[in-house]
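User: For a benchmark we're assembling, each entry needs the component sequences followed by a predicted structure for the full assembly. Here are entry 17's components. Please fill in the structure.
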Amino acid sequence: MLGKKISYQVNGNEIQIQFEKGEASLRVLTAEIMNVFLPKETKDHRSKAIEGEKAQSVSFTVKEEGEALCITTEKLIAKVYDDFFVDFYKPDGTLLCADDRTGRVFTEQISERFIEFLKAEGHEVPDASDFHYPVEVVKKMDGDEKFYGLGDKTGFLNKRDYEYENWNSDIPQAHTEGYRALYKSIPFLITLKKTGVYGLFFDNTYRSYINLGKENEGYFYYGADAGNLDYYMIAGEKMTDVVSGYTYLTGRTPLPQLWTLGYHQSRWGYESAEQIRGIAEKYRELQIPCDTIHFDIDYMDGYRVFTWNEKDFGKPGEIIAEIAEKGFKTVCIIDPGVKLDEGYEKYDEGIANDYFAKTPEGEVYVNAVWPGDAVYPDFGKPAVRNWWGENQKYLTDLGVRGTWNDMNEPASFRGELPKDVMFTDEDRPLPHAGMHNIYGHLMSKATYEGLKKADGKRPFVITRACYAGTQKYSTVWTGDNQSLWSHLQMAVPQLCNLGMSGFAFAGTDVGGFGADCTPELLCRWVQVGAFSPLFRNHSSKGSTYQEPWQFDEKTIAINRKFISLRYQLLPYFYDLFYQCEKTGLPVIRPLVLHYENDPETWNLNGEFLVGENLLVAPVVEQGMTKKLVYLPEGTWYDFETKKPYAGKQYYMVEAPIDTCPMFVKEGSIIPTYEPMQYVGEKPLDVLKLMVFPGTGRYEHYQDNGTDFAYQNGEYNLYEFIHEEGCDAEEIEIKMLHEGYTRYKKIQVL
Ligand code: GLC
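Assistant: Structure for entry 17:
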């Protein structure tokens, strides 16, 4: 507790406030974003999520009003009280978010009961403060709060009444609601309630705890084991403003290469060039579109990173070039653990240059991962990131088109790394306790920057572990799920929450990684995968093979249907990524993001929107051939039959195994391409527009799909306008920007 307020000074965007027992600050970044900062560990923020100056020149006033110091912008009011309690109000005076002053009541009660129990058992009695976290923010609840975001957490869309932890965890067991933490730490929360919507981003990399009304219905809290109290209030009129504000702060998913939006095939267990060749041939033979094959750890020599297993995969790069002739791009896995092996170049270089994490006594720290004894690059050192980045060239020189970063929680087979293993935070030592949750982030950043230098293309990185803000550098997948219906069910809320947490480019292992996939499960999963931003079928060694042809003819046909549909919709997905770079809005979205005033959307776990206008309601239960679909306001058209449906109603629709219910909102224009087997198979010079009745306008983006030339104006931006009552085949086209070869033909379907 900081005690009474004594004085304050305004320095640029920052209001420094002196209390009896310390100093804290409130910073106005934009009219809608404010930062609350109590330096407990370092004087400065040292944020890994936020890069560059985000404070804009924004007008605000600072005034003392009674007990409070009021900081007012056009969009948000903060009132700071003694003990650094901070309440936020909307400009009209409505209370948005208030600090809880009563203390964590439940904890006090628990401790009384607990103390009696401990006494009875003859244990030492802890102090009440032992139940609190060194860093703690407790916010009052009105009672009708819904919570969204938090990245990849398990369970359902609305996180109300649950508790979670942020501690990047490699969980090989089936991910159930009981897991409080998976691979990612994204401490960003959106609160929706009657009186408004806001986001809170807790920027702290230590292990942290989020309890959303589970402990007590009167408050929710955030606690961390160490670090600063450093959080951001992100206000907005609508939920979409909050997502835009958060991604303004932590960065937006950059425009990817077009092929990365195609279909990817992977398996841990492709053990030779021959097997890879077989996969490539089969896709082309069956005319199932596919762009990418992922090489899992077996391509390496003894799991040594940046090496090649010549025995099974032939001359380095040969198989990559061979499948490239058929249009396949190669993505290779790289883990952080470097094999402890004197004479192995990467290990020797790392030792010579002091690149690896150390024990507190100064010895190189050794644990074990795939190669056995392994050491951990200290990605917090700029020199290590450079080194790692330069090593990407080993891969790109072989023709590799993207890097898959795995095991970067960091995972370890001989127990978790002790908290005091020493890493570096740029220019200061940082123990594992503070580094853990940003290890994957820093590895992804090194990889992104290295790839960008190596081939000048838009880097394609996939990571398993990450922190808030990693979306600037990498796509993500949700780690080792299993071939379980419950995991297919969870994929929808998980991808929706990842999207609202900044990770627009995310996917699950289609078909499930562990356990054995069934034909029906694969058919239903490919229906979700076809709309997931990252669309990759991946499975584990020891499980049933799950490429589409491993089952029956029907499964092949259904996979072909939905993968082909994905390719048809590529321009629509690409447009969404283009928009995401500008607004931060995700590609797939829960309905609540666009219809937050409609209570039916608050807990909708079984359907989602792709962009704003395409609604997908996949079947995610075994044996089910009907789906209960909620359509929000407006008129919606069945994607296949074009039958109209009035919104704000539930419908029971037919959904046999080859059907995924999809609806398009009135007035929508959806751009499509001709069918193709892979990106680059044919010139993409014809655009076909699906135009739905009603009035609408649509912006379509086109560029070379590979490099950064678009940032110098080499792109086209079209505006398509469709007026109610006009001939369905007639649309108006305007060029909003012209800097790239135009389509030869734009056709209205
Ligand atoms: C981890 C990854 C998985 C990969 C395997 C082998 O379990 O999550 O995707 O296939 O390691 O590299």
